[in-house]
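Session log. Operator J.P. requested a structure for one protein chain; no other inputs attached. Running the standard single-chain path with token output.
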Amino acid sequence: MKRLVCLLLMCCCLGAQAEVRVVDDRGATVVLAAPPQRIVSLLPSLTETVCALDQCALLVGVDRYSNWPAAVRALPQVGGGIDPQIEAIVALRPDVVLLATSSRAAARLEALGLKVVALEPKTHADMRRVLERMGALLGVNDAGQVWRAIDAGVSAAAQSLPPVLRSTRVYFEVNSGPYGAGASSFIGETLTRLGVQNILPAELGPFPKLNPEFVVRANPDLIMIGARNAQALQQRPGWGAIRAVREQRVCVFAPAQADILVRPGPRMAEGAQLMARCLREHAPGAAR
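Structure written below.
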């Protein structure tokens, strides 16, 4: 009888240890009986975070934009955060679905009995928090170490810049519209850590849609933009007079580089290094 009682107690303890409880960015408490073994991710930054925690093998489906690391490209694609393919997600039998708080799919998926964790990093602090919560969800203990490596990488990128470049006034265009990266966004935070000046103040919001004349009046020294949005930049009304355009101080990032830069994920240090290289090669005062 004593042995039976001890065995039951051990089973209860193991069960308690296996249970996973995470509070997501909606404030919802998500409880799983054990760390998930089948994951669908509907946000590229969350896909990359799973893989950064060495749990890529748990992914069974991703959104159409998840493309790093290369292994995830072979996984079934189930739409996007805005237009997920609900039936395809259900068919994959995930233990949990990861998505952004802005996604409208959470309620529909939960109504079908699926567990949903909504996480949407927008700042450096958010990325650290998301790593910690993903570590808890996946039963990974070294999430803090991953963050420390990211943070050290951003610091190293900043230290690589000579002081003469740190007065550079930068405009970072996230998407055509145009939408820019404001000082309160994770991109803006990286620019601040690099020591340069963002022409978009924090009060405009993280990623404001701009009147193109605002950029003309701000007259940045340097423009950072993805190749997808850089076409006909000089043909925008008045933009030919911008110092950065006139002096050809425009960094055009290839699509793969732009993905790194605009995703608040584990490759933020690589994004900081891309920005730093742009500054070293194109900012006023840089050796060209």
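Operator note: The radius of gyration is 22 Å.
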